[in-house]
Design a protein that fits this description.
The chain is mainly α. The chain contains 20 helices and five strands. Helix content is about 60%, strand content about 5%. It is globular and about 55 Å long. The chain starts with 5 loop residues before the first helix and ends with a helix.
Length: about 375
């Protein structure tokens, strides 16, 4: 795909994925794609799959007249995703029932249940695996229970040595196989996670869910349209009942406040009456943070979607720093932990066992990351 065409294609994709609330934009996108129907639609569907919104695209374009081959391709993607999500939902229910019977509190995150809540359709949201949040104090018991359910932890070593890992991957080698990410925190690069603490204290309230959906954009460096669509869908369905004072108070206590503000700002284009202007103003980035975000992301969601590979690499570091309050101790701590992550994180990422020395792993990480990050900082914005 021509990289210069990708931002335009991403804008068309966004317009179609939010077609119910922006019918004029959807009609314009279809008209633009019709100019070279086969080639353009193939490129659009390929981008939709990469961005995790292909099943959503299928549903949001059902009221439009599309080429037959395009409609068949989209419906095939939606049907396959629906079948997969139904299987994931059954497995998630099995795990949840076992955890509940053992008295272990847990919260499903990005699985099929989120698709039902945000889109009223289990087949709409593209889901790759199951995600569960558990309390750190219950990590060892949860690990043992998952083993009893047929799941093998992919990071070796005693579970006590992994107490500071943000998430751990488990795989059940069945037919089909199931992957499960077990989370202890929701926000990256933090020693103490205020958002997870809020969920542990009060559950997944509307305010906490919206904070989490915005945080997903930060975690994925604003490089995936799926997470923007999630925030927009939440605002469309539930934005009118959010306690915005409570939301703002919580967001401002987090070092990722400016990134949460940017996530809302992008989504407001699709749900313009949902977020009070005072909330958006209060969460604006600092001038330096704003510069880093613009330098890395470009002029909005479509530009960011066209830079996915760059943002998955060194460019993503500046998104993380720009999403925090630069100059404050928390942001300095984030920068430090980006360079020197915890031992548990390194074991999770490299597969090193508990007995392996980690100094070579830290050295290799710095030699790989720092020069690439400096080159990206000095590079002119495309």
């Amino acid at each position: 795909m021509n990289s210069g065409h990708e931002p335009d294609l991403a804008r068309e994709l966004l317009s179609l994925c939010v077609a119910p609330s922006r019918p004029d934009d959807a009609a314009a996108a279809v008209s633009s794609l019709a100019a070279n129907a086969t080639q353009n639609w193939e490129a659009l569907i390929r981008l939709a799959v990469e961005q995790g919104v292909a099943p959503l695209l299928a549903v949001r374009t059902r009221h439009l007249r599309l080429p037959v081959t395009v409609r068949e391709r989209l419906e095939s993607i939606y049907s396959a995703n629906s079948i997969r999500n139904l299987r994931l939902a059954a497995e998630e229910s099995r795990i949840s029932a076992a955890l509940a019977a053992a008295g272990l509190r847990h919260w499903p995150l990005k699985g099929p249940g989120l698709s039902e809540r945000l889109y009223a359709d289990i087949g709409v949201r593209q889901v790759s695996d199951l995600d569960l949040l558990v309390e750190p104090a219950n990590l060892a018991r949860t690990d043992a229970l998952l083993a009893d359910l047929g799941y093998a932890r992919q990071t070796s070593g005693q579970i006590e040595s992994l107490a500071r890992a943000q998430e751990l991957l488990y795989i059940r080698n069945s037919t089909p196989a199931f992957h499960l990410d077990l989370h202890q925190r929701l926000l990256p690069y933090l020693r103490r996670d205020p958002l997870a603490a809020r969920v542990f204290a009060s559950g997944m309230t509307k305010e906490n869910l919206l904070l989490y959906l915005c945080a997903n954009q930060i975690t994925h460096r604003f490089a995936r349209l799926r997470y923007l669509c999630d925030v927009a869908a939440f605002l469309e369905r539930e934005g009118g009942s959010v306690d915005w004072d409570a939301f703002l108070s919580a967001a401002r206590r987090m070092p990722w406040g400016p990134g949460i503000g940017l996530a809302l700002d992008w989504a407001v284009a699709f749900a313009p009456s949902s977020v009070p202007a005072r909330v958006l103003r209060a969460l604006r980035p600092s001038p330096i943070g704003d510069l880093l975000l613009q330098r890395s992301l470009g002029n909005g969601a479509a530009d960011a979607a066209s830079r996915t590979r760059l943002l998955d690499g060194p460019g993503g570091a500046y998104v993380s720093l720009g999403s925090a309050y630069l100059g404050r101790p928390a942001a300095c701590g984030i920068a430090w932990r980006m360079m020197f992550p915890t031992r548990a994180y390194l074991r999770e990422q490299t597969g090193a066992t508990a007995g392996d020395p980690l100094i070579p792993a830290y050295a290799a990480r710095l030699m790989r990351k720092i020069p690439a990050a400096l080159r990206q900082l000095l590079k002119a914005t495309p």
